[in-house]
Amino acid sequence: MRYGHPKGMPPELYLVPLVIDWEQVFRDPSIPLYFTEGWLKAIAGVKHLGVPVLAYDGIWSFGKNGVLLPIYNEIVWRGRTVYLLNDADVPKNPESLRAENLHARLLMERSVERVLIGRYPKTWKQGKLDDALIAKGAKQYRQQVLKKVVAWDPSMTEGEEIPIGLVEEPVRRPAEIPPMPKRAMYGLAAAVAKAFDAPLSLAYTAALVALAAGQLPIRGETRGTLYGILLNVSGGCKSLITDRAEETMKSVTTVLRTLPASDRGLVNMLQFGNGGEHKDASTTANLDPKTVNLMLPSVLLIVDELKNLLAKANIENSNLYSCLNELFYHTTFPVSDRKGVHTSSPVNFNMLGNLPCSNAAQFTELFGHDSQEGFYRRCLFGVGMRAEPFIYRPVGDTLKAFLHGLPFKPTELRATQEMYQRMEQWKQASVDEEQRKRREGLAELLVRVALVTSSANGDEKVTDKAWDAAVAFIEWQEQIRTVYAPARAKSPYAQCMDMVESYLEGCKGLVNWRRVSQAEHWHRREFSQHLIAVKRYLISEGMLIPSPQKGLFYYKKEESVGATAKLTDCNYYKTPDDRNGH
């Protein structure tokens, strides 16, 4: 044991006797004071450096319970410079670093001019004041330590609240969705998807929507219309699949390729008049709704550049999402303007779109915010997979031959009470509340997919095999939704905050901000200009804590609830300052 202290006695500072006139030093704030841990180090500092060095017994022995020792009251602090020359291992030890930071903070509260932190060169094997002075000499010590001190400020309290033992967490690989299971495909829908000669994780969703637009005689409250979106990188065969879907169904349904610019534009697209094969509202108004459902024409809207439609729908005051949501449940919808009320012709409306998307972050940016509870919840997704590479092969003659022999004789079906009961059982099987919420939004799609596949296949009822395939497909959709989701916030700043917190909430170790930003492509996002503001805000709120290791941070998960509340409050603000009206 190098140092001893009587048990039960309060800690005290060691003042090297005889050499230093401590009373004069304490009265004169122009004289810098030096602190270190251990008496021998103080003696070595006074002897070799010729400066007043005070020593505490241990790194925490400058005070107790956040109060400095009484001897500190005898010193004139205002305007004085103070050096803290602790051991080299302090930055690596959270407890020691916490003590050093607290000591510096308490000194700053005494109005010292500045507190300077001394750190030893990494190449030095000696990391203690006395050992370094003996090995390197006073001249080297002054040049390599005292002249390279760092002024302490509150931001250097890094590591104080970081659990001991944490290490840098590897950057998480982006979540990957598994390919659609083969058991998710059923009957004629499976055959059509395979005839497209394209990755099935994309083609099957397109086949479902195409068949739903094929004048299926589905009756009852649960309709058979579907919306589908194909997600893949540019050049990932999305357009080819939608072209083949059009070729498959154009003889039995109306295919539209016009992009509606607004709600009124969508009404105009769906105005078929009274003289053709399509029935309008006045013709069918007095008929039994079940009969009308069987008479109505089906429409398949193919949107090759869905991002353009989403951009128009996300414009403030746009009602395009509302109209699409209305058509999901009803055969017609009205819009009003200065010229009056305009109503679309009754149709069974289906939509298939392509969205160029290479990762979840890009999806969030493209899909927007307002659609989260509406349009997004009503869509089926097909996703391009690395495990399903696409090799182009022309299928013109093959597809025509397949269509010529296609046994498309849909049967009249409706959702039964048994199907609704099985749907409820599926929802009840959720493992947690988060999954329960997802399944609430997917439950109706489950019934619709089962009806569409069974009717298109010519089944007299929804068989167990068809139901099980629909469940497998919708559970795959559930996996897609855990990765691809709209933004939870509206303003660019709030979206940036949401993006950062969504990643940090899954972290268990120390986070390398720069590496994560590069891996997640944060700097390439439209709202990347808010990254610095978000980072500063999280640090100021005590949610993101700088680590002693440069570039690493600790995220306090227990604060995430409060962070979410703050995020909700600032949805419409661009920066934190905007909340205060600045």
How does this structure look, described?
Helix 2 runs parallel beside helix 4 (129-144). The radius of gyration is 35 Å and the shape is elongated. It has three domains: 14-156, Dna Topoisomerase Vi A Subunit, Chain: A, domain 2, CATH 3.40.1360; 182-483, Rossmann fold (3-Layer(aba) Sandwich); 492-580, Arc Repressor Mutant, subunit A (Orthogonal Bundle). Helix 2 links the parallel strand 2 and strand 3 (53-56). It is 40% helix and 13% strand. The chain has 21 helices and 20 strands. The chain is α/β, with parallel strands linked by helices and 582 residues long. The strands form six sheets. Strands 1-3-2-6-7-8 form a six-stranded mixed β-sheet, sandwiched between helices. A five-stranded parallel β-sheet has the order 11-12-15-10-16. The chain has a three-stranded antiparallel β-sheet with strand order 18-20-19. Residues 274-294 and 559-582 have low confidence and may be disordered.
Keywords:
582 residues, alpha/beta, Dna Topoisomerase Vi A Subunit, Chain: A, domain 2, Rossmann fold, Arc Repressor Mutant, subunit A, 3 domains, six-stranded mixed β-sheet, 21 helices, 13% strand, disordered C terminus
Into which percent range does the helicity of residues fall? 25-40%
Our estimate of the beta-strand percent is 5-15%
Please, how many domains? 3
Give the overall silhouette: elongated
Poorly predicted ranges: 274-294, 559-582
Radius of gyration: 35 Å
Query: What's the total count of β strands?
Result: 20
Amino- and carboxy-terminal Cα gap: 59 Å
CATH architecture of the largest domain: 3-Layer(aba) Sandwich
Task: Compute the number of helices.
Answer: 21
Strand order, biggest sheet?
1-3-2-6-7-8
Q: What is the oligomeric state here?
A: single chain
Mean pLDDT equals: 82
Q: How would a textbook summarize the main sheet?
A: 6 strands, mixed
Give the CATH level 1 class of the largest domain: Alpha Beta
Question: In CATH terms, what is the fold-level topology of the largest domain?
Answer: Rossmann fold
